[in-house]
Write a sequence for this structure.
């Protein structure tokens, strides 16, 4: 994850809001920048191969033009990253990644597993309560703080239900719960 | 004066109710740190599906206007700009709050916002039809270059690195190609079944603007960010109004700078406030006081921010090239209502277009009234804890993207794009050019393919795209924006190097 010593700093700068508040010195290092550029170059090459390897070029005229620019620009980005230039963006520090990993897991499980299996509202309740509790700085061993968490979650999901199900009449997937 | 005929649609009970709700909601959303205007408008779009187009747009327009003004509340009281547009507001506004003049700063901010805002909307009202009738003469090659110009300008101005900005624009253009092509229906770039219907613009907008902010709120882990909210004491509204109006120079500079920057496609409000603040300081008699709680700085920054709102819709409504990221989201809102902005908008959908523009004018006044009334309440909203906000936005994003066309695929695309954008943003890519690419992709492709057909029938493809004074003018603008950004990038690098060399010695 870490390429240069300064990669460790973004995690300390993070709590306020994001890139704007991070100190100017906290810029992603050469290795991280190069890997990011390499991934984009790979996508660009794939787009180019798909666009040019066709029998009827008519639907791919614009993608052909576009993929040329994509490959050229991502090559430039990669070359600059390898030379240690073009260093914008704060990158991802190890601790910061650990901090967001749990949240990312909740999001992915929520959307790709729970939403259809549990039903939209049941899944929303579970996902919101989990995410909120995981990151809530309040103590986790008191009945009162858990009551607050439950109440806020139930309240918000109820508002969502009123707005989407009753107001906008959106038919959401119903799983084993609701 | 055609716009005067369409005020009737705005002054109905339901329209006024929608405008009030949009304004109050926008002020509160804008005041909450972590909720940007762009994201607020993106999350609101699903709520407009069931409204008629004019009223849906009124809601979005009112929210756009008032979130920009609401963002000043957290800039002043917390020193955390609610949106990038409010960075300049914090410079003097927060110092005023520290000195106990928080209420006066808020009042001055809303009053100057309204003055700048009305000025901007008037420019929108009078310039749009003129520009639209001129743009009617545009052929496919010109529209192709306009689309490319939109992506280039936002790609180069909105990010620190020209290469990364343009690359983000290209990625957006490519995402727009996913799905079946519009002419033959051939399926392109579909590598999972979720992509069969292509990437819906609303799902993309919600994902790209909401999810990265959700993840950013989680970066700090369980740490409680300690913030100082400055107390809001009462202040006399009339005295603040007089004080604002007396700063004629700052108002004129703010209004002009905001209007001009708004008109440039892609430049957006991020820089309007800062440029106006700088210029106003340069021409002010008490420039030394700037940064020490000088209300003139707040006036310049806020009048510029809101003066930008109206003009940023001019290129949007006439050429379908949005002037700011939020205008891009607004374009998404227009598209789902089947309204395709462009030169013929004022012929095909005159009623919708004019009542939307008129409602923006009324929206400015409502924003002033409600802003002054609830500034104190807005300070309370600021205290919503990041974990609550993050989880609530996540749920709202899932429901919002699902309700676009009752499709689970849209939700999956929303989340994957959002998480991808978070990581891209960490490496200096910004969402604005990407979104503009997605929006302008179909326009660019359609006109490119049509232009080729016309060119082949006439005297060749290259001459069709590259000759004629309008083509050359547009190409020159594309090149100009590139050269300007590359030069300023080099200048910034040089300054940084000089600064670090100084620090080292």
């Amino acid at each position: 994850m870490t390429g240069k010593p300064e990669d460790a700093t973004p995690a300390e700068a993070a709590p306020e809001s994001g890139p704007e508040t991070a100190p100017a010195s906290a810029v992603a290092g050469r290795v991280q920048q190069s890997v990011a550029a390499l991934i984009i170059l790979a996508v660009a090459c794939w787009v180019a191969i798909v666009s040019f390897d066709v029998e009827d070029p008519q639907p791919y005229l614009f993608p052909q033009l576009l993929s040329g620019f994509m490959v050229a620009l991502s090559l430039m980005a990669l070359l600059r990253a390898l030379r240690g230039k073009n260093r914008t963006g704060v990158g991802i520090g190890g601790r910061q990644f650990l901090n967001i990993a749990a949240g990312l897991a909740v999001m992915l499980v929520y959307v790709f597993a729970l939403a259809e299996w549990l039903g939209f509202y049941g899944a929303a309740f579970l996902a919101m309560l989990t995410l909120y509790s995981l990151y809530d700085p309040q103590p986790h061993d008191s009945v009162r703080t858990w009551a607050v968490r439950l109440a806020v979650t139930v309240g918000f999901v109820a508002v969502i239900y009123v707005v989407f199900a009753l107001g906008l009449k959106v038919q959401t997937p119903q799983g084993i719960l609701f | 004066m055609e716009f005067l005929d369409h005020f009737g649609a705005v002054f109905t009970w339901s329209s006024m109710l929608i405008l009030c709700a949009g304004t109050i909601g926008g002020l509160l959303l804008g005041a909450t740190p972590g909720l940007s205007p762009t994201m607020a408008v993106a999350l609101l779009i699903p709520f407009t599906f069931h409204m008629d187009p004019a009223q849906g747009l009124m809601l979005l327009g009112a929210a756009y206007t008032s979130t920009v003004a609401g963002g000043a509340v957290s800039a002043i009281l917390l020193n955390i700009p609610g949106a990038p547009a409010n960075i300049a507001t914090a410079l003097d506004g927060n110092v005023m709050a520290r000195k106990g003049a928080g209420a006066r700063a808020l009042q001055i901010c809303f009053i100057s916002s309204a003055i700048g805002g009305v000025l901007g909307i008037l420019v929108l009202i009078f310039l749009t039809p003129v520009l639209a009738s001129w743009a009617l003469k545009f052929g496919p090659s010109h529209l192709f270059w306009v689309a490319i110009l939109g992506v280039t300008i936002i790609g180069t101005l909105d990010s620190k690195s020209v290469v990364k900005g343009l690359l983000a624009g290209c990625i957006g253009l490519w995402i727009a190609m996913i799905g079946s092509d519009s002419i033959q229906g051939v399926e392109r770039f579909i590598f999972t079944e979720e992509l069969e219907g292509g990437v819906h613009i609303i799902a993309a907008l919600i994902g790209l603007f909401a999810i990265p902010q959700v993840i950013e709120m989680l970066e700090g882990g369980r740490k409680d960010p300690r913030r100082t909210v400055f107390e809001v004491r009462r202040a006399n509204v009339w005295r603040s109004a007089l004080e604002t109006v007396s700063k004629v120079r700052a108002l004129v500079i703010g209004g002009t700078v905001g209007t001009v920057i708004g008109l440039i496609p892609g430049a957006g409000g991020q820089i309007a406030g800062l440029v106006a603040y700088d210029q106003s300081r340069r021409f002010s008699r008490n420039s030394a006081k700037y940064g020490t709680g000088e209300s003139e700085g707040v006036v310049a920054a806020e009048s510029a921010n809101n003066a930008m709102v109206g003009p940023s819709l001019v290129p949007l409504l006439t050429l379908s090239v949005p002037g700011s990221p939020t205008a891009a989201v607004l374009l998404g809102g227009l598209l789902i209502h089947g309204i395709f902005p462009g030169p013929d908008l004022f012929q095909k959908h005159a009623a919708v277009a004019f009542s939307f523009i008129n409602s923006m004018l009324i929206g400015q006044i409502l924003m002033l009234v409600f802003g002054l009334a609830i500034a104190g309440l807005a300070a309370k909203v600021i205290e919503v804890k990041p974990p609550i906000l993050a989880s609530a936005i996540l749920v709202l994003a899932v429901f919002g993207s699902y309700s676009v066309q009752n499709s689970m695929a849209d939700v999956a695309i929303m989340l994957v794009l959002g998480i991808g954008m978070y990581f891209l943003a960490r490496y200096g890519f910004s969402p604005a050019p990407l979104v503009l690419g997605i929006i302008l992709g179909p326009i660019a492709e359609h006109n490119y393919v049509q232009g080729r057909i016309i060119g082949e029938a006439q005297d060749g493809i290259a001459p069709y795209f590259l000759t004629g004074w309008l083509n050359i003018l547009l190409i020159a603008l594309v090149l100009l924006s590139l050269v300007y950004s590359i030069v300023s990038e080099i200048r910034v690098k040089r300054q940084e190097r000089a600064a670090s060399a100084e620090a080292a010695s």
Q: What stands out?
A: Chain B has a mean pLDDT of 84. Chain B touches chain A through 75 residues (CB under 8 Å).
